[in-house]
Amino acid sequence: MRRKLIFIAIATVFFVPDILFASGKGLGENVTPDKLMGNRFLTLNTVIRVNQIEVTRDRYVGNDERDMHTPERVIAFREAVSSEFPGARITWAFSWLALHDNSDNYKKIRELVVGYHYLYGDDITFIPGAYFANAYNSREQVNKDLHEGLAKVGEMVGGGFRPKSVVAGFLAAENQLYLAEKENIHVCQGNIWSQFSIDNQDGDGAVSYPFYPSKEHFCKPAQGKDDFIDCVNLDGWTVDFLAARRDGFTDGFNSRMGVGPIETLLAYGKLIGLSQMMHTTGVHYDRGFDLNGFAWVTNCWELSLPIDISGLKDWLNEIKRRWPDVRFITQGEFGLLWREHYKENSFDYRFEQKGSGIGGSDINMEIRWFMNKDFRLALLKDWQKTRNESVIDFTNYSEKAEEPQVMTRKWSLLGEINQKQSRPQDKPKAISKLSGDAVSLVRKHYPYLLND
Q: Which of 31-40, 173-182, 388-397 has the lowest mean pLDDT?
């Protein structure tokens, strides 16, 4: 009760709308389900930092963002979520500097977010290295940052608090192992699915839905007990599968386009941007739900983005209207539900999508993805011209993998053929033209694909 009263006193100073104080308003409408299957899930995290990309504790790349992080913006952001989706619980990730900055603004921001934890059940956690920790730090340093950053979060929240997850962008297998074994945290946003030639680190090659990573490589699902890491590895934000097959900005299109506000609302404006966000969302909540038995959409909306927060409200409002059963919970809660259902990598994910006609989501193309412990496979066709599909990605997870041992941006796990077509061997081909091992694996899991 004391925490809640403190929060209300702080929030009142900043003229928070009355809806924020409606004790219990909507708080019981979004109870975490007791099972994964049969549910549609939405997770949202936001990052609070001081500098644009804090690659180490005392070094950053990009702009100083102090002026973009204010208590007023924090309040507006949280109100946008609660007003459109009562009962929603989100994840707040603080950078190293945001946890330690002693200016009045950051002190008040930290107090507000702690209040949101006690009022709404939001999770609060740490982000090491601003998405790219391993590109600029040794694994030992990342573990140290994780330990001390998480301790600082616990001290800030009080009451013996521990985050349910970590937001990391990309995080090496050794560091995810450390989280599980030393910090007792079993959920990590540890890969950004299909990212390649964008921002400060590459990491294509993983599965887009949750999986237990291998000790060999954070993009590789564990193959058995010997290489198993008990840390559910989550994607950073849901992307359009057709846009994602491009190498960076090939053909002038952003390969990260999906539900993220930078690639949609900022790039195309609210009307077209929201259309693309909803198209990507529908891929999972409609056909994806039918194929997989559950569905998950996730988004990262950095607090400093120069984007009208009304776009967030519109997206959430439309989700609530079209899929009123969506469970909007923290990424840690979602990851732990997945962990309860899957004790090992026994998943078998399938996705089907036609293009939206926006950006790199070609309206004449259709893509099918198949993802399991052994491999990932993508089939592409121009549905306006042919029934024949070509393989654009086959990544064999049963093969040995190895992460870089030096600090570099290149952390992708590129298989026999990769969707980005960055190598000569990546030209699309018929499924029968894959290697013998690949054909055998496909036949084992999906024999009907070889009978078409």
A: 31-40
